[in-house]
Amino acid sequence: MSQLLLNQSERWSMAPYLEILEKAPTHLSTGSVTEMVGLLVESDGPAAGVGDFCEIRTKSGQSIRTQVVGFRKGKVLSMPLEETGGLHLGDRVVARTGEGSVPVARAMLGRVLDGFGRPMDGLDPFVPEAHYPMFGAPPGPLERVDITNPIATGIKVIDSMLPCGEGQRIGIFGGSGVGKSTLMGTICRQNSADVSVIAMIGERNREVRGFIERDLGPEGMKRSVLVVSTSDRPAPLRIRAAFVALAVAEYFRDQGAKVLLFMDSVTRLAMAQREIGLAAGEPPSQKGYTPSVFNLLPKILERAGNFKTGSITGYFTVLVEGDDFNEPICDAVRGIVDGHIILSREMGAAGHYPAIDVLQSVSRLANQISTPEQKEAARKIRGVLASYHRSADLIRLGAYVSGSDPDLDSAIRVKPNLENFLRQDSHANNGLDDTLQQLTQLAAQIK
User: How far apart (Å, rounded) are the C-alpha atoms in residues 327 and 337?
Assistant: First the structure.
């Protein structure tokens, strides 16, 4: 009816708002708070499903948003997304099922959003061009396009030895303090994608501004969208921020863009889901992680890929607890992604940047996106690194006699040039063609 009262030009300009109006519920489903224990709010109603959002209207006039996480004995269990100060027994709870979508627009480029998808950089709000669902199902296997084109990162060791294709998903595994954030900033600043979407989940507040100003820089920020939910935010809001980033990435993908999605970190995301699961009564399993954690990971990781309209290339960092690369989250992520980059604490301590352990890292699509010359050169260099690694103790002790092993002699001879190739300054930008040329020249030195 509202559209009949407008002329054609007015309908065109107000189309996004009319769409929201048409989808708006005609009645409110409400309930009341019956109990709150720890992180969990129990209420009698409203009619809402798991994952839906609610709003608690307190007697003091506050509004507290929550997310439904389960049910128990006919009661609705939800977790607050905001501070619960002022919450009273009997406060009214209203279902907000329409909040499962994210307002998106090209004007988001260069902006910093919070876990609700709202600007948090103090600038004017942008006008939405569309609303994208946060919890959409990952595209099916037949909706995807084969990955054949490489995407440049500006990191020599990655572009040459561990190439990544448009739509590929790569895990970056490392302990604390080995350079994950610095590597993330370098890739986001220098990659060949059209748009970068960066989700910072559970990060320290101090690191957010430092990453924007020091690691990402003004040039990188111009074509990036940051979604931030720091460690002090409630667990549901940290998870929501990850899904907001996915929705933003899918919007730019549907515009035909090559999107680079960087999520830091999957481990803190899993910890947030564990927090929710334990509060809702889930039984803990591996290292205290609940079954819902391992159900969540593929729902997030599988939404990246190569499609007819565009691509989402995913880099997902994993914070390795105690440098144990066999802990549950590492194993789960490694089994889903299309390759993994291992960061070595020993190399990082020696000042080697990036601290990538080439022998432990792999790109599962390297054969599809590399030229025959690149594959042969990378094979030679891997062989040299493996040969040197096997005899490293003998070389350090001076026990190796030159001439005993021709392959090892060759490895010792080219080791300085190889080390120089595999390391670079964090602000150096290396073009893909120049990197591959250096790779070929280095391989030619190996007999």
Answer: 16
Q: How many CB atoms lie within 10 A of CB 306?
A: 20
Instruction: State the DSSP code for 394.
Output: H
pLDDT in tens, 406-432: 888 888 889 899 999 999 987 888 888
385 in Cβ contact with 410 (< 8 Å): no
Q: Measured in whole angstroms, how far is the alpha carbon of residue 439 from the centre of its chain?
A: 29
CA distance 125 to 123: 6
In angstroms, the CA 240 to CA 223 distance is 23
d(CA 11, CA 18): 8
Q: pTM for the full model?
A: 0.87
Tell which phi-psi region holds residue 204, choosing left (phi > 0), alpha (psi between -120 and 50) or beta: beta
In 3D space, the residue among 353, 119, 75, 83 whose CA is nearest the CA of residue 226 turns out to be: 119
Parallel, antiparallel, or unpaired for β 63-72 and 75-80?
antiparallel
Asked if residues 303 and 246 have their Cβ atoms less than 8 Å apart, the reply is yes
CB contact burial 190-200 (16+ within 10 A = b; e otherwise): bbbbbbbbbbb
d(CA 354, CA 154) in angstroms, rounded, equals: 12
**55: nearest Cα among 21, 17, 99, 86:** 99
Q: How far is CA 14 from the centre of its chain?
A: 34
Question: What mean pLDDT comes out for the span 224-237?
Answer: 93
Return d(Cα 406, Cα 205) in angstroms, integer: 53
Report the candidate in 359, 316, 311 with the shortest Cα–Cα distance to residue 335: 316
**Which helix (H) or strand (E) covers residue 277, if one does?**
helix 266-279
C-alpha to C-alpha distance for 183 and 210, rounded to whole angstroms: 14
Segment 266-295, tens digit of pLDDT: 999 999 999 999 988 889 888 889 999 999
